[in-house]
Amino acid sequence: MSMYRFPEPWATAEIPGPKKAAILSRPESLVAIIKRSNRRLLAVGSKALDKVEGIDIVELIRLLSSTKLFTIVASRNIAYKLEGKGIPIAASISVYELGDRLRDGNWTGFDGGGKYGLTAFIGFPYITLWLVLSGLKHFAPSLSTVSLDPYYQPHASWSLPNVRGGEWYSFIKRVVDSLEVM
C-alpha cells in the first residue's frame, strides 16, 4: 500500500471528530487484530455484488470465509445470493438492525455465544457505513470495528486508507494467506 496517501474521508462535509480510525497500512497489522479477537463477525453489505475497479468483492468475501474465523452476516437483499455462491451466511439482517444489536450490552450474538469482540464490514454504501460506525464508536466503545472497503472510514477502529482495486485485493489476499497458516 502506498504510504503517501493521506486518509481522507469521502464525505468531505462531515467531521468525524477527534477520535479517528487507525490506518491499516500493512496486512500483518490486520492479522494481529483478527488473531487477538475472541469472536469475529463479518458484515457484508448490499454493494458486495458490485466490482470495484475490476475487483470482485464476492471473491474477497469467499477468501475471508475460507479462513473459518468469521461468523458472516449479510444484508437481506443479498444474503441468498451469497449463499448461492457457496458462502455460508449465519443471518440476514439490515446494517441498521445489526448496529443496534452490536451496541446492546445484553445481546449474545447470532449463536448465543456472547458478544463479538471484532466486527469487520465490507460492501456497504459509504455513507450508510459512516453512520453505523459513528453510532458504534459512541455507543459500543468496547467493540472493535474494521472497515475492509478500499475507502477510509474514520469512524471505524481501524480502516484501510483510500486505495486502488489491485492494492485492495493484494492486501486482503495477504491477510487471508497469513490467517490460513495459523
Question: Radius of gyration over alpha carbons?
Answer: 15 Å
Tell me about the largest β-sheet: 7 strands, parallel
What amount of the residues lies in strands?
15-25%
- Per DSSP, the total helix count is 6
- Cα(first) to Cα(last) distance is 23 Å
As a percent range, the share of helical residues equals 25-40%
Give a structural overview.
This protein has 182 residues and is α/β, with parallel strands linked by helices. It has a single domain (37-181), classed as TPP-binding domain (Rossmann fold). The chain is 36% helix and 15% strand. It has 6 helices and 9 strands; from the N terminus they run E-H-E-E-E-H-E-H-E-H-E-H-E-E-H. The mean pLDDT is 91.
